[in-house]
Amino acid sequence: MSDARVRGLQLERLRPGVGKWRLRCLGVDGRGRSCITLGDAPLLSLAQARELAEKAKLQIALGAHPAAEKVLMRQVPTLSAFIHEKYLPYVQSYKKSWRCDFGLLRKHIEPIWGHLFLDQITKDAVLALMAKHRTTHAPGSCNRLLILLRYLFSLAPKWQVPGVAENPTSGIPLLKEDNKKERYLSSDEVQRLFEALKRSENEMLQHLIPLLILTGARKREVLDARWEDFDFERRLWRIHTTKLGKPRFVPMSDSVVKLLGSVPRFDCDWVFPNPKTRKPYVSIFVSWNTVRCAVGLDEVRIHDLRHSYASFLVNAGRSLYEVQRLLGHTQIKTTQRYAHLSHDTLLEATNSVGLAIGGNFEKGEWS
Q: Please, are residues 128 and 140 in contact by the beta-carbon 8 Å criterion?
């Protein structure tokens, strides 16, 4: 039944005494036809239905279609759908550590928020999640999760995904991390380690570990090294599998050249292959752990060899800029953690002034 006074207003009878007031109008995109439900009859009187219909028609004339919000709401994806249909395919195309993202999301986020729509995840929800996560995880782990969420929610507006008007993680600070481990090998410890490596059942370990110390390279960079990556004429090692996904070049010192000359060659492209498979090692932890424990260096991690390389450079008087370039750091602040290691070098330098001018300062005598 159509109303004679308000064009498009209709009463749809569902059963005796019960109906729906509906307004037929232009579609959300301005083309075609749409039907807006105004309310139930007889709870809503004819006069009230006419008033609502006039307001709806005015909204449409002003460009704010009443049904637009409902259409938009139906387009908002759940967090799980956004992760698997948008986020993961994107990061897989460029991010080497995308599996870490997937693991964090699958373990800590999807079980709690996976069924929620993006517009249902608020800042309060993020704060509550991080507070709970902090009870069982270290500050560094909490920060990694928060950084991941911050990046994930920043992509939705860029891709014009409905449901995220603003990032719910914005304004939430990272926790202070006091759990950074710094362990540097001394020259004596390195020599003890080298002697133990010769007795290792893993015949490649005596070549692999020294290269880590001599170049400051990351473990995976050495494990995946190919002979074709080393330019002995120009003394450069081109590393393909860097943390940032971009290749970098490492100068080859005399010691590195000699070391590589002693590495046994196998019928494969890899420099340090597993002799049984002729492929790169998946893990060397067992053999490494055996060696480090044998010389009383149980707490030394493989990544500490990279720190030790930096400490040897700094204490030899090399600048932080040189250390930054050799380690492949993109920001100098990452390298500045090694600045304190130059104290002994600086102390020796400042003592040279007293030696230069001479004098017995304990007795107040000048020579």
A: no
Q: What is the DSSP letter of 229?
A: G
Encode pLDDT of 69-121 as tens digits: 565 556 788 999 999 999 999 999 888 788 899 999 999 999 999 999 898 99
CB atoms within 10 A of CB 205: 21
pLDDT tens for residues 3-54? 778 877 878 788 887 888 787 776 665 556 777 777 788 888 888 888 887 8
C-alpha–C-alpha distance, residues 111 and 122, integer Å? 17
Q: Which two tokens stand for residue 316?
A: 């030899």
Q: 287 in helix, strand or coil?
A: helix
Query: CB count, 10 Å around CB of 294?
Result: 16
Q: Helix, strand, or coil here: 22?
A: strand
Question: Which residues have C-beta within 8 Å of that of residue 360, sequence separation ≥ 6?
Answer: 366, 367
Q: Phi and psi of 59, rounded to 5°?
A: -60, -45
Instruction: State the CATH architecture for 9-75.
Output: 2-Layer Sandwich (3.30)
Sequence-distant (≥ 6) Cβ neighbours of residue 329 within 8 angstroms: 335
CATH architecture, domain defined by 187-347? Orthogonal Bundle (1.10)
Backbone dihedral region for residue 32 (phi beyond 0: left; psi -120 to 50: alpha; all else: beta): left
CA distances (Å), 74 to each of 68, 140, 151, in order? 10, 37, 24
